[in-house]
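Researcher: Here's a chain I'd like modeled. Treat it as a single chain, no partners, no ligands.
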Amino acid sequence: MNLTLLTCCLAALGTAACGGAADIPATPDLRSLLESYERPTASIDAARAATALDSVPNLAELAAGFRAAAYVMSKVDVASDDTSQSTGQRVRLQGAIGLALRCPGNAADPQYDENINGSISLTLAVADNRILRSFGGEAKSCILEGTLRGRAARIVLDGALAFDVGRDLGLGQRWTGDLLASLPGTLRVDEFEFRSISGRLTDGRFQYLLTLDDEKTIVLQLGDDGLTVRDNSGVWFCAPGEPCASR
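Model: Modeled as a single isolated chain. Structure tokens:
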């Protein structure tokens, strides 16, 4: 994914730059959504755990889409490194970094042409030499390549984006791998289309927040240990062809 710095309005605190001390842009507030992932409200049994998984048959496709979308974090790392290298250690910065990402399409034959494979724009807020943990932007028909069941999958992002990476990042620090994403627009994975969804990557697992008929929530998880369901009291392991069992 090719990157262009659209804007970089950062001001050293106490000095005049960008017309004075740069304003820190507002950031998306995903705290309530994160709390829902951390503390699901439903208490379920084995049968309801299995039913919940059956109600989301395309969890693997969702995971592939969100893992591909997380590729933008490589460019957040680049922006963090570049800003750190261009300033001295004693300089305190605040302001905004605007990023324009041109999407590659096919990974084997990338074409960084936004007229062909679309783009993503992001705005990072910087306060006291730290990129704030949440940021937003917009995807315009951004085509990426993901991996689904060991094969390449076509991923398309379109619409507003909001991310939370779990903690502020010091300039020059790298993304740790945790990512909560809210996608009010559309996410297409091959022939499947998802609208107005969220997902979380943490500890190597993909998580999807599911609201049940009684408005209470559980979290479906897909990781190296297979499919699991987390309610407010524990985790259910659901192996294919076997009843779900609590841990």
